[in-house]
Amino acid sequence: MPEGPSIVILREQLDRFIGKEVIDVGGNAKIDLERLKGLKVLDFKSWGKHFLICFRDFTVRIHFMMFGSYAIDGAKKARLRLGLTFPNGVLNMYTADVRIWEGTADENYDWSSDVMSRHWSRKKAKSKLMEIPDTQVGDALLDQNVFSGVGNIIRNEVLHRIKVHPESKTGKLPKTKIDALLKEVSAYAFDFLRWKKEGTLKRQWQAYHRKECGRCGHPIHKKETGKTRRASFFCERCQKKY
DNA sequence: AGTCATGTTGACGA
DNA sequence: CTCGTCAACATGAC
User: What is the pTM of this model?
Assistant: First the structure.
């Protein structure tokens, strides 16, 4: 569920609830559920992995963490975290971290860091990278403040695409590799979106959870890298360590 | 059936 | 104050 493109897919399915009133609220989310009742949803937005339900005076922020899921016009077996009933349908969410931000989404988020936003700024991401030259690029990719929406799939596939080893220090990357990184991180997110919709995402993976490199056939190395200690999958033949 | 995983936060101690 | 470590959360695919 969790990476940015999956949240975009959720958002895209909810157009018919925009402008509609929440006529009932349920679930075990630790927020004041009654507060939503009777209010109109002005919009659904996303910022990276954050799914945002926009009301006039506040924003409900949903984070699906690792195991989150949702159902539209249906229910699942899992315990309901937050369920919204509209006159024309239902949105149910499970295993999510739910919070309320006072104010609008615009007041709470910097859209330029979302790799799937139309406001995504390569330039700003580049200057953020320059500030952390000693950070491993694998860790930098998971930094939501720099690349919001990027998760473990996107980071591993992007690094494979640009032939860079996850343990490379950002400050040592050649300019061409920095530029390739900034370009591909967004490009891959949109490929992910398309493949996920087609149901072909897994078979497109070139490194992530693969035994052999999708490019050269060399065995894929799996290792917990960096401070994040998430699993990195990479080709020691194709991907150079800087 | 057991293992593993598309993630983040907060507590705690050094 | 900042850093590292760890527990906690909770589900489903294989």
Answer: 0.96
